Amino acid sequence: MPGDPNCRAREAPGTVEQIGEDVIGSRVSGFVSCFGNPIDERGAPGGRCLYYRERGDETYWRFCARDGRIVSAAGSLPRPG
User: Fold this and answer.
1) What SS3 state is found at 16?
2) DSSP characters for 24-74?
3) How would you classify residue 48: left for phi > 0, otherwise alpha for psi between -120 and 50, otherwise beta?
4) Residue 8 pLDDT more than 70?
5) CA-based angle 5:9:13, to the nearest 5?
6) pTM of the entire structure?
7) What pLDDT sits at residue 3?
8) Distance (Å, rounded) from C-alpha 51 to C-alpha 69?
9) Looking at residue 2, what is its pLDDT?
10) What is the torsional sign of CA 55, 73, 14, 3?
11) Which residues 6+ apart lie within 8 Å of 2 measured at CB?
């Protein structure tokens, strides 16, 4: 997360690039410090989901978290709304 060459928080907060399900288990705090605040956040059963735009596409990633850790990730989603 922080220090990762794919961190783009300063360049494009709320945007992710070259990321996927491999972030499962990551701490939400480290994820947000790396990629900036999400473009949207919603409650989910037992936790919350963070939405980020996928750089270069009109699609989005949803990262759901419980107890401060990411537990699921899904990409190529439409804009949350």
Assistant:
1) strand
2) TT-BHHHHHHHH-S-SEEEEETTEEEEEEEETTSS-EEEEEEETTEEEEEE
3) beta
4) no
5) 135
6) 0.85
7) 53
8) 15
9) 47
10) negative
11) 30, 33, 34
